[in-house]
Design goal:
Length: about 140
């Protein structure tokens, strides 16, 4: 059967070497780092498991960088995760990297900005912000 793991990296800077699933998937307790695919800040990977692993509880982690070579355990998240291997293909819920609770939702709400223009020309106030990565300037009115 296949198990698909998913982790949300929305609040993390993704390392150049990528995101990895760390676990002992072959049943011999040798931990491997398997690179995940990343689409829109969600990293995922499907692991094929054998029937002999059904019902086993396995520990796993996500790693932001590192590929299993020298000292890469430093890149592994600080919490431990566990899965009991199911009897059929399974799609894991998306979890947030290095958090035990659900990822915080991005909140969007309208705002109104007011400016006081001492010159009273009313056309010389411009503003920018991180809300659009400082890409555009908007004229205040």
């Amino acid at each position: 059967m296949n198990v698909t793991f998913q982790v949300d990296m929305q609040d993390e800077e993704i390392a150049d070497s990528g995101i990895y699933l760390v676990g002992a998937w072959n049943g011999d307790w040798v931990y491997t780092f398997q690179q995940m695919n990343i689409i829109d800040n969600i990293a995922s990977i499907t692991i094929e498991l054998s029937d002999s692993q059904i019902g086993l509880s396995l520990q796993y982690w996500y790693a932001n960088g590192g590929d299993g070579t020298d000292n890469t355990w430093a890149f592994v998240e600080n919490i431990s995760r566990y899965i009991t291997i199911p009897e059929q293909d399974f799609l894991m819920e998306v979890v947030c990297y290095n958090l035990e609770e659900d990822c915080p939702e991005d909140l969007f709400f309208p705002i109104t900005l007011s400016f006081i223009d001492g010159s009273e020309s009313w056309d010389n106030i411009w503003f920018e912000g991180s809300f659009n990565d400082w890409e555009l300037s908007y004229q205040g009115t």
